[in-house]
UniProtKB/TrEMBL annotation:
It is found in: Cytoplasm. The keyword S-adenosyl-L-methionine applies. It comes from Candidatus Thiodiazotropha endolucinida. It is an enzyme of class 2 (transferase). Its EC number is 2.1.1.228. The gene is trmD. GO terms for molecular function: tRNA (guanine(37)-N1)-methyltransferase activity. One of its GO terms (cellular component) is cytosol. Specifically methylates guanosine-37 in various tRNAs. This is tRNA (guanine-N(1)-)-methyltransferase. Keywords: Cytoplasm, Methyltransferase, S-adenosyl-L-methionine, Transferase, tRNA processing. GO terms for biological process: tRNA N1-guanine methylation. It catalyses: guanosine(37) in tRNA + S-adenosyl-L-methionine = N(1)-methylguanosine(37) in tRNA + S-adenosyl-L-homocysteine + H(+). Residues 1-225 form the tRNA methyltransferase TRMD/TRM10-type domain. Gene3D superfamilies: 3.40.1280.10, tRNA(m1g37)methyltransferase, domain 2 (1.10.1270.20).
Amino acid sequence: MRFDLVTLMPAMFDALTKEGVVARAIGRQLAQIELWNPRDYTRDVHRTVDDRPYGGGPGMVMKYQPLQQAIESALSASPQAKVVYMSPQGVGFDQQRAQTVVENRQPLLLIAGRYEGVDERIIERYVDEEWSIGDYVLSGGELAAMVVLDAVIRLIPGALGDADSAQQDSFMDGLLDCPHYTRPEQIDGMSVPLVLQGGNHDAIRRWRLQQALKRTRERRPDLLQDRQMTVEEEKLLAEIIAASGDAEQTQEQ
């Protein structure tokens, strides 16, 4: 898959492209990342990419012309790309959106803004969607773009060493992940659950599902509100609620 990024700080992406899962995916030619710097399209000696906002106010705004030419160059290289502006005003980026990107196989062109944002006419003319990674403000869109890239690229078949790893992540089936353990079995008086030490794969699967439901209920109950429960999930959740009620009664006594 191809990914293009319009950014004033291309060196920041070295952290993503030179190590880890994304770097391996690039090495395996599963992902291609191209960077486009608006400063390369400026016309003055100072390579100016920002100016004061109309109407006054603090901060600066990214200028139209350098951004336009950077975007046009990227679209010339990847004409089918979906153009996304990383913005706290955008729709929430989540696991489902990452999966959809991979399933559609449509190239992405991400625009990382700086300062107070970009000239609104860039958004009106070029941007297909605005995405946000959370209700907070960053110094620029680069970190948000890296989050999106990492979340998407790790889902590309072959990007992870174990084909099942991504399928067992939190949110992949709408639930938080279950607890995980490794060797040794005993550490400082804490033991690995006995069910995981046995060879009963169905019992292990059931335990993991129950733990995922339990964690989701405790930490992200909103994820369960609209979930279409299977018969097994309803039974496991009822057991969790019953056990929780017993624990609360014991504490009250």
